[in-house]
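Exercise 7.
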Amino acid sequence: MARGVWIVAWILVAVWSLAALVGYGVIDLFGTFAVERADLAARDPDQVAWIAWFFETLRDLGLLAVGALWLLVSAAILGVAALVAKAKRDRSRFTDGTR
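Solution. The predicted structure, written as tokens, is:
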């Protein structure tokens, strides 16, 4: 039974990883798009540089947030799986199997 818990947990981590990868790609795509088109927002080169830096910083923070969120959710999924597997193992050890 504990093996089934781990299989489900790893499937959930795989699905969550795909969702996080899509989110990462979307943030990177739109962030890069904004950085490359910073010259459309202003004519002054100093302002263009500042706007590009601002959008690049926002993109990088978004990518960092996606990575951190992926790590936290994956750890939570595997942590719950470990607790459930341990509870199942302890329950089977302390019962005589007649119930």
